[in-house]
Amino acid sequence: MIVLLILLLVLALCVLLWLWAIAPQLPRADFSAFLKYDYAHRGLHDKDNGVPENSLKAFSLAAVCGFGMELDLQLTKDNRVVVHHDDSILRTCGVDKRISQMTWEELSGYKLTGSQEGVPLFSQMLEAVGGRTPLIIELKGYNDPALLCRLAMEELQGYQGLYCVESFDPRIVRWFKLHHPEIVRGQLMEKMKAGDNGLSGAQAFFARNMMTNFLTRPHFEAYDFHARDIPSLHAARRVFGMQEVSWTIRTQEDYKKAKALGNLCIFEKFLPAATSLEEKQSFRELLSAAGRGAVCSSAVKSEK
Fold this sequence. Notes:
Layout: H1 2-22, E1 39-41, H2 56-64, E2 68-75, E3 81-83, H3 90-93, H4 104-107, H5 122-129, E4 135-139, H6 145-156, E5 163-167, H7 170-179, E6 185-189, H8 201-208, H9 213-216, E7 220-224, H10 231-240, E8 243-249, H11 252-260, E9 264-267, H12 283-291
Domain GP-PDE: 36-278
GO biological process, one term: lipid metabolic process
GO molecular function, one term: phosphoric diester hydrolase activity
């Protein structure tokens, strides 16, 4: 009996330690303004219609059409904050060069996916959006974390729009916890495995099970929607009411599931349909309307 009681006590302590490790920042942040929007992944892009990802055109289109947007930040060699997902421009520009090894002047000479759009500065992106819709700002882990965070915040000084920050790198999320606790911050996560981003097996286990949250105390967990069925995420939602952000939603079916869970949705390759009976529009029709300066409906249908 004593052995059983000891085992039960150890088990209870382990559960409490686990809950402490995965807990978000409390009290819970107010997400009511963020929940009014869906978020276009890297802007409202469609390269088949001449709108590259993470381009000023994609961000402007998202804002005009009433969508929030997700974007990616990193630094050039001369420490300019630019908006681009990959650490190189091979996929987006066809040139095998790393952004961290190019100056802004050199990078600005390349165009995205055969368009006339270049890799934008963060400052250009902020000016183009002008606070019209919310931003989910991902800071990439390619550069010195503290430097990227500090320079990004310098760009955001005086910006009047709604935004939050997120990162896969716990050092970045922790930087915001320590230096700007007033800013809503999130931990990006997927089912990490050994070797991903140079992680050991143990590091990947702790990461994918959200057990770095004790260091960062994020306000939300942005988990890969197709890998979200893990005990830690469900426990954090049920016990602490943690806000979940779903990425990347690519079908109407997944969109409906994520919305039913109360999640913020980051989408691409389709256009979320409104719940009203408004007339649906295609991406090309939205693009045409934006070009005329018209206000786009968010009730749209995919052309794909």
